[in-house]
Design goal:
Length: about 325
């Protein structure tokens, strides 16, 4: 039950964004400990870039700068871009991705609250299309020292075979395309995998899940999108797995690998580019899960969440129009 007080003061943009940043901290901590500590440097680079770009665009538009910088929305976008990118990317790719998110996606559509597409997902898709090789260079979890990671970020020589490895999703997809391979044999042959997902990345998924629960408890987000996304991804992957377990990975693998938990609580739930009605939120998130799974298993990219989000962003006006609640006192009438 909901307890008093029943009338609450509207949350400010700054308080919401601060809560999102705090919710990301468990996942970021797991990232630092389990995968690549240089992500902290990337977060700093991205944050400075986002704030500088935001200030410059606002000055060019002759809009107040201080309120926009202090609302932390640009910082949240910068962090999400970094957490979606490989941690050993050259610094300039991170800068370019953040500039696309802030300048092209956010401000060219009118600024905060006006963008029809998720800025971080546009940045990811643009970079993976423009620089597919760099965006595929993920370090083996916890196996590269900080100095080597920093050298790679700052432009050091990239000895690919020595410093990079396949993600769990990529290793699974590539392994299953080998003649006679099964899910069980792929899991046994590669050190990329942990207990249920990618080694090290399971802790990130747990961290993002914990952060998501914090957002739910604070009522920053509603349950509709996270539950619909996680449940749909589990059901769809479960159906394929039950039909042919040797060929398709189980649901836990898909939930604990890649960016599933980050997407469920921090990407899909974007209040600007996502659906706004209760039923619409369920449809929107479920659609993302279905498309993401199909791309993961049958597509050209091992991770399909970013493309799925953008495709469903296109459907938001139609989803919202068709799921508007009935106007009170008018049977079957919708606004």
């Amino acid at each position: 039950m909901i307890h008093s007080p029943y009338i609450r003061k509207p949350a400010s943009v700054q308080s919401v964004m601060l809560a999102v940043l705090l919710a990301l901290l468990p996942g970021v901590t797991a990232y630092v400990v389990q995968v690549a500590s240089v992500v902290v440097v990337n977060l700093l680079i991205a944050t400075v870039t986002a704030l500088a770009a935001e200030a410059l665009i606002l000055m060019l538009r002759k809009r107040p700068v201080a309120p926009a910088l202090s609302d932390l929305s640009a910082v949240v976008t910068a962090w999400l871009v970094v957490l979606c990118f490989p941690p050993i990317l050259p610094w300039w790719v991170t800068v370019l991705g953040v500039l696309i998110a802030i300048v092209a996606v956010k401000h060219l559509y009118g600024g905060l609250g006006q963008n029809p597409f998720n800025p971080a997902m546009v940045a990811y898709c643009a970079m993976i299309v423009a620089f597919p090789s760099l965006m595929s260079q993920w370090p083996p979890a916890g196996q590269i020292d900080f100095q080597t990671q920093l050298d790679l970020v700052l432009g050091g020589a990239r000895q690919l075979d020595a410093i990079t490895g396949a993600t769990a999703l990529d290793a699974m997809r590539t392994g299953l395309r080998t003649s006679g391979a099964s899910v069980e044999s792929v899991l046994q042959q590669s050190g990329t995998f942990g207990a249920v997902g990618g080694r090290g990345w399971e802790w990130l998924a747990l961290g993002y899940f914990a952060g998501g629960l914090f957002l739910l408890a604070r009522r920053i987000i509603t349950w509709h999108m996270p539950v619909a996304f996680i449940a749909t991804l589990a059901v769809v992957s479960g159906i394929f797995w039950l039909a042919e377990p040797a060929r398709f990975a189980p649901p836990l693998f898909h939930l604990a690998s890649g960016g599933a938990m980050l997407a469920a609580f921090f990407i899909v739930t974007d209040p600007v580019s996502g659906a706004t009605t209760p039923r619409g939120k369920l449809i929107f998130a479920a659609g993302i899960a279905v498309i993401a799974y199909l791309i993961r298993v049958f597509g050209a990219f091992p991770e399909g969440i970013a493309f799925a989000v953008l495709l469903m962003n296109l459907c938001v006006p139609l989803i919202d129009m068709k799921t508007q609640p009935v106007v009170f006192g008018h049977r079957g009438s919708r606004p």
